[in-house]
Amino acid sequence: MLKKKILEKRDKFKKKVIDKIVFTINQIKGEPLDAYKEEFDDEEIIDEEEEWKVNEWKQWFSNTEKEYDNWIQSIDDYKAQWIKEKDLEFPTFANSLYKSWDRWREQVKSESKDLKEAKWKGWGKEEWKLWLQKHWYEHNQEKWKDIIATYEKNYREWTVNNWNKWKGQKLMSWIMKKWKVREDRKWERWESNKWNKRLRFKEKKQWNVWRYRLEKERLQWKHWIDSKRITVLGENQWKEWDDWKEEKHKIFEEIVDSISKKWVEEEKFHEFK
């Protein structure tokens, strides 16, 4: 009976040593953390200090989600104000169309003055209407596209910069916690000694607990940020801006059309003959 207990104890010790050797080999090979995740199941709390660190992350993350809700509300407020500013700017753009008409018409005359037989010399109202609907409209449509592209580029740059700044500050507030800085420095120094990973098995287990916790935090943060990015940067989901563009584009078309129609009805096209 005594001999049996001695043999069982020896086999148990032998298995423990072999497990440590395999564990060390996996580390040297650079096995991913998931390869030995089962050793650190979520329900297994190494000690009270580790449990406290996990709870600190959960509390910080919960607070960050609440702060995000406040931040995104400030972004929505800015977007509403931004559209109001574009409302104030639109009349200036609309008035520029009238000045643009004079410049464009003179440019067309200048480019055609050397032609002996300009095709429009015999045109009446209908021919001029059709020609202007195409060329005058296309000329201004490019201007409309350019100004909208500029608006959206400026807005996106502002949003991206503020988003990057906000999420960077939030993450930094976690990384720079005093207890976390001390812990990270401790294990970074430990990692610099290659013999630690091979010989100090107890410390190595704690080191892997630290690495596993950091990886979990990193993945949770990444997934959360990815899920919020669409909301923050998704201009395609900005209904108020889409409505604004649709409404103002109709006004834009009416102005462009009225300018050319007035010119044709007054038979100003005779100046081209």
Description:
This is Tryptophan-rich antigen 3, putative. Residues 56-271 form the Tryptophan/threonine-rich plasmodium antigen C-terminal domain. Pfam families: TryThrA_C. It comes from Plasmodium malariae. There is one protein chain. This protein is mainly alpha-helical. It has a domain at 177-237. It has 7 helices and no strands. The chain has helices at 2-29, 48-112, 125-175, 178-191, 194-199, 201-233, 239-265. Helix 2 packs antiparallel against helix 3 (125-175), helix 2 runs parallel beside helix 7 (239-265) and helix 3 (125-175) packs antiparallel against helix 7 (239-265). The radius of gyration is 35 Å and the shape is rod-shaped. Residues 20-33 and 35-43 have low confidence and may be disordered.
Topology:
Blueprint: H1 2-29, H2 48-112, H3 125-175, H4 178-191, H5 194-199, H6 201-233, H7 239-265
In brief:
Pfam families: TryThrA_C. The chain is mainly alpha-helical.
N-to-C order of helices and strands? HHHHHHH
> Hey, roughly how much beta strand do the residues contain?
under 5%
- Total number of helices: 7
Number of strands: 0
**Model regions low in confidence, pLDDT < 50 over at least 5 residues:** 20-33, 35-43
Content-based structural category: mainly alpha
**Global outline:** rod-shaped
**Helicity range of the residues?**
over 70%
Rg from alpha-carbon coordinates: 35 Å
Largest sheet: none
Arithmetic mean of pLDDT:
81
Task: Give me some keywords for this one.
rod-shaped; mainly alpha; 82% helix; 7 helices; 273 residues
